[in-house]
Amino acid sequence: MQGMLPGVPITWEIGVTAHPPVSDPGTVDISLVASGALVADPTGLWLTVDLCPVRWVGASCPGGGTSLVGRDAASRVFNGPLAVGSISTAQQLWVGVRAFLPSNPSTLPTGFGNLALVASGVGTTVIAGTSTGSTAYTGVNIERPLQCALAAITLGLALALIARGVRRRRETV
């Protein structure tokens, strides 16, 4: 989000799930917080916030999403933490934030803006944010694709060795 251009939205999707012991179900309260000059400036940061009960597929919610905040200035949305909602520990919730600077600003807004999603429940608070000090993982999980890539490389090397052995046998016969 550091290189925002006027009229070009930046999308941030955050998934919230909990994994408490089955014997200890509970509730997770979710909110968004924001700070900085771009958030306070009515001509600064604008955003939309949408909720989805399952992971987003591109820009659409296959589970039937809902809009929490329509296109609005962050200065009007954040008078403190914005309550996103609560989920049971058996549920998940995906929050989609589209942040952008106005398309035709009279003057280009300056400063910074920080957004953070706060999930609290079952004795833990986790923060996923755009500022330094945010503690939660906010990227794509590359573990599975990395495992597949390594398996493909290993398989390719094994097939090359087998082909080499077959070729040597044919040459000696």
Number of helices: 3
pLDDT < 50 stretches = 132-142
Overall, the morphology is extended
Work out the number of β strands.
8
**Strand order in the sheet with the most strands:** 1-6-3-4
Provide the helix percentage.
10-25%
Structural class: alpha+beta
State the distance separating the first and last CA atoms.
64 Å
Strand content: 35-45%
Reading the helices and strands in chain order gives EEHEEHEEEEH
What does this structure look like?
- The longest helix is centred in the C-terminal third of the chain and has 30 residues, at 143-172.
- Mean pLDDT is 80; it is low at 132-142.
- The strands form 2 sheets. A 4-stranded antiparallel sheet has the order 1-6-3-4.
- It has 2 domains: 10-137, no CATH class; 140-173.
- The protein contains 3 helices and 8 strands, in the order ββαββαββββα.
- It has 173 residues and is an alpha+beta fold.
Short description:
The chain is α+β, with helices and mostly antiparallel strands and 173 residues long. The chain is built from 3 helices and 8 strands.
Give the topology, please:
Elements: E1 10-17, E2 27-35, H1 37-40, E3 46-52, E4 66-73, H2 74-77, E5 82-88, E6 92-100, E7 114-121, E8 124-129, H3 143-172
Antiparallel strand pairs: 1-6, 2-5, 2-7, 3-4, 3-6, 7-8
